[in-house]
Amino acid sequence: MIKKNVFLFFILLQVLFLYAKNDKKNTENLPLLNTKWVLTEISETPILQTLDTAFITFYDSYKFSGNFGCNLFFGEFTFGKRRIKMDFIGATKKFCANMQLEEQFLKIMRNDITHYYIEKNTLYLFDKKRVVCKFEGQILKF
């Protein structure tokens, strides 16, 4: 009887340990690099997800690329603890039916984005005063 209780105790302990370990993973922040950041909000306006959803990805080669919702864009960046400096280099120039989101996103990318903050799977990009873009992260698989 004692052996059975000890055995059940160790099984319960293992289950609790695994649960705690998995729970910890869910509270960790996604990394800035090598994560696809899908645009969910721009200037406090929610974004509807479509086939050509706007996104940005920062690579460990200090380059970034993404989609404005129609055209592709790319550039280089440097970053430190919550600071980020993005050097927007270029984009494709095809015409799409609705260019409003694209124009707004492009304007923000060309203005001074000064810092970022990641909370779990959400990336916030700031100008000098406020949040200008909010993204939801998806880890890239290589």
Q: What can you see in these coordinates?
A:
The chain is α+β, with helices and mostly antiparallel strands and 142 residues long. It has 2 domains: 1-28; 35-139, Lipocalin. The chain is 26% helix and 38% strand. It contains 2 helices and 9 strands, in the order H-E-E-E-E-E-E-H-E-E-E. Strands 1, 2, 3, 4, 5, 6, 7, 8 and 9 form a 9-stranded antiparallel sheet that branches. It is globular. 20% of the residues are buried. The model is unreliable at 18-25 (pLDDT under 50).
Question: Summary?
Answer:
This protein is 26% helix and 38% strand.
Q: Sheet bearing the most strands, described?
A: 9 strands, antiparallel
CATH fold node name of the largest domain: Lipocalin
Number of domains: 2
Percent of residues in β-strands? 35-45%
- What is the count of helical runs? 2
- Broad CATH class of the largest domain: Mainly Beta
Instruction: Write down the overall geometry.
Output: globular
Write the layout of secondary structure elements.
Layout: H1 2-27, E1 35-42, E2 45-46, E3 55-58, E4 63-67, E5 72-79, E6 84-91, H2 100-110, E7 115-119, E8 122-126, E9 131-139
Antiparallel strand pairs: 1-2, 1-3, 1-9, 3-4, 4-5, 5-6, 7-8, 8-9
